[in-house]
Amino acid sequence: MAVNPDPKPGRWILPLVILGMIAFTYFFVRELPEASTQTTLVANPGSSTTAGTGGGSSTTVAGTTVIDPETQAYLDAIDQINQDLQVQRTEIVTVNTAFNQDPREVEFEEAEQRFEAVVTTTQALADQMRGLTPPAGLEANQTALQTALDTATTSVNAALEGLRSTDTGEQRNAAVDAYVQAATDYETEVTNTLNAATSNA
User: Is residue 141 within 8 Å of 192, Cβ to Cβ?
Assistant: First the structure.
């Protein structure tokens, strides 16, 4: 009877299987494509920014309309004018209301100084608006915006004149109301201009 030199030949099967699995895994992983090192970050899905030819950036509105840098700069400028104009609207209404109180919460000298400040600022805003060049297609909006600011300038000058006159307040109050309406018209036209810009883009 032959003698088996290894009484437990099966004990080599498991190590051989494990070794085969390791070898298979090694060669399989080597064949996989390398992962990309570039990562794309997605910001607001409703808007994006792309580089313009002049080195600026253009804005995508609602994921479809691209506004060029020059038009965007114009829109930013009229929006800033609007913010400043609304501050002046609040100021003139506040001063006029306080001056109308009985007893007065603001005396003549202070009311005159504050009205003068609104006159100066409003005139500066009108001049700034006049210095802007509207992009193609927004010329009519530019005219409407300028008209509103010129009306505001005329109105605040009339309010100051009424304050200095012997008028009992009718002229001054009417002029302040006209200023408020002009500021409202300008604000509305800013929105109209934005809509026109997105339509023309």
Answer: yes
**Are the C-beta atoms of residues 167 and 175 closer than 8 Å to each other?**
no
Q: Which residue has the tokens 């003549």?
A: 108
- Determine how many CB atoms are found less than 10 A away from the CB of residue 85: 25
Are 77 and 135 in contact, with CB atoms under 8 Å apart? no
pLDDT in tens, 32-51: 655 444 433 333 444 444 43
Reported as a single tens digit per residue, the pLDDT across 96-138 is 999 999 999 999 999 999 999 999 999 999 999 999 999 999 9
What DSSP line would sit under 130-147, residue for residue? HT--PPTT-HHHHHHHHH
Q: How far is CA 162 from the centre of its chain?
A: 38
Q: How far apart are CA 113 and CA 105, in angstroms?
A: 15
Please indicate, yes or no, whether the overall pTM of this predicted structure exceeds 0.85. no
